[in-house]
Write a structure and sequence with these properties.
Length: 325
C-alpha cells in the first residue's frame, strides 16, 4: 500500500459517508487513507440563513485552510457547496459519478401529510387543493435554507410561506417532525446516501437543481503530484464534464451559490443537453434557457448559455440580485 492519504471531511453523517466513499475507492486502487474531521462555519452557526452568511465557501473554507496548511492531503465536498473559483493553491482532483440530482418534497408525517401513495402530482394536489380548502387564506408553510429552492417555490406557489431550515440532514428531518410546517425540501442525494429518504418523499421534477447538485468533488494541493495522480483514478468523465458546464454558467451569471440560479447538463449519447434559469429572490421574475452541444466541443458552452439567458430576460433579474446584496 502507498502512504496514508489524509482525507479532510466535515463531521456530519452525510459528509462522513462521502469521505468514506472516497476512502474505499482509493483502497480499491491500492491507496490507504485516514479521515480527519474538521468543523466548518456552516456547521457551527445553524440559525442564520445561509444567504445572510456570505454563503460562498461557508462549508468548504475550513477544509481548504487545512489543506493549504498541510493538515490534510485532500478534501471531500458536496460539489454544489464549492465556490466556482477555487482558492489559489488548490485544484480539482476528481469528480465522482453523480448521484440523484433532484430535490424532494418531504411532508410532515407528524401532521399526517404525505401518508398516501406517492405520485408526481402529490405536491400540487396537496398544497394547491387541500390547503385552499382547509385554511382561510389558502396558504401553506414549507421550510428550506436554500434561496434557490425558496425562489422556485414562490414562483410556483405565490401564497406559500417559506421558513428557514438549517442543520445537517438528520437534524433537519427532526426539526420538520417537531414543527407545524406542512413540509420541507431536501436534496435527494443527501437523504438517499445515508438511507434517510422518507417513504412519502416526492421528487420535484419541475424544480431545477443547483449547479453540480448530487456530485462530489475531491480537491488537492496543486503541488502534491502524488496525491493528484492517486485521486485522478476516481474521476468520472461524464459527471466532470456536465458539472463544469453548470458551474461555468453559474460563474458567468453571479459566481456564488447563495443565488437563485439553477442548472442541469446531461449527457445523452454524444450530446450535452442543458437547462438553466435565474429567478428573482421573491420568485416573481424568472428567465430560462435551453441548449445542446456536442460532447467533443463543449468549451465555453456554459458561458454561452449564461450570456443567452442574460440577453433574454435574465439581465434585469441578475442586476436586482446584485443590488439587493
Amino acid at each position: 500500500m502507498n502512504p496514508d492519504i489524509r482525507i479532510g471531511t466535515r463531521e456530519s453523517e452525510l459528509a462522513v459517508w462521502q469521505a468514506t466513499l472516497v476512502k474505499n475507492m482509493l483502497a480499491e486502487n491500492g491507496y490507504s487513507s485516514t479521515l480527519v474531521f474538521i468543523k466548518s462555519d456552516g456547521d457551527v452557526d445553524l440559525k442564520t440563513p445561509l444567504y445572510e452568511m456570505g454563503v460562498q465557501g461557508i462549508f468548504t473554507k475550513s477544509l481548504d485552510i487545512a489543506l493549504l496548511n498541510n493538515a490534510i492531503d485532500i478534501a471531500v465536498h458536496s460539489m454544489k457547496d464549492v465556490p466556482t473559483q477555487l482558492p489559489a493553491g488548490i485544484v480539482q482532483g476528481a469528480v465522482l459519478r453523480r448521484g440523484n440530482y433532484k430535490d424532494l418534497f418531504v411532508g410532515n408525517q407528524e401532521l399526517g401529510i404525505g401518508d398516501r401513495e406517492s405520485t408526481a402530482n402529490l405536491l400540487d394536489s396537496l398544497l394547491l387543493k387541500e390547503f385552499e380548502l382547509s385554511t382561510a387564506d389558502g396558504r401553506f408553510t414549507l421550510a428550506t435554507s436554500s434561496i434557490r429552492r425558496k425562489a422556485q417555490l414562490l414562483h410556483r406557489y405565490p401564497n406559500a410561506i417559506v421558513e428557514n431550515l438549517r442543520g445537517n440532514v438528520n437534524s433537519r428531518l427532526k426539526k420538520l417532525a417537531a414543527s407545524n410546517w406542512d413540509g420541507a425540501i431536501f436534496a435527494a442525494a443527501g437523504l438517499e446516501r445515508i438511507n434517510l429518504r422518507p417513504h412519502n418523499a416526492v421528487e420535484l421534477d419541475w424544480m431545477l437543481p443547483a449547479p453540480a447538485q448530487g456530485a462530489i468533488m475531491v480537491v488537492c494541493r496543486e503541488t502534491d503530484e502524488k496525491v493528484i495522480r492517486a485521486v485522478a483514478t476516481l474521476n468520472d468523465e461524464a459527471t466532470a464534464l456536465c458539472t463544469k458546464i453548470e458551474r461555468e454558467f453559474l460563474r458567468e451569471l453571479l459566481g456564488g451559490c447563495s443565488t437563485p440560479i439553477s442548472a442541469l447538463a446531461q449527457l445523452e449519447n454524444d450530446e450535452i443537453h442543458f437547462r438553466g434559469n435565474i429567478l428573482s429572490i421573491d420568485g416573481k421574475e424568472k428567465a430560462e434557457v435551453e441548449g445542446k452541444v456536442g460532447r467533443l466541443t463543449p468549451e465555453g458552452f456554459g458561458k454561452k448559455m449564461a450570456i443567452e439567458l442574460l440577453n433574454n430576460g435574465g439581465g434585469p433579474i441578475a442586476d436586482s440580485i446584485r443590488n439587493a446584496k
